[in-house]
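Write out a record, fold above all:
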Amino acid sequence: MAEKDVEISFKKDTVSKLLSSFFKEDKTKLSGDATRLMVEMLKVFVQEAAVRSQKQAESEDCDQVDIEHFEKILPQLLLDF
């Protein structure tokens, strides 16, 4: 498998709007620190999902990671987070 060092990034504005969409009251505010923390959590989550999916594919002697590999690691990934 080809290894690439790709920087995972999420736009702070997008994460802020996504989080705000789940607020039940219009008065609820989201601080910049909370947004930055959530961006970092998303980065860690996506990186961990990619690594675990790659390891699952390797354990099955596959040259490419498919959605099936991700689906196999997803339950434990969600429990770990």
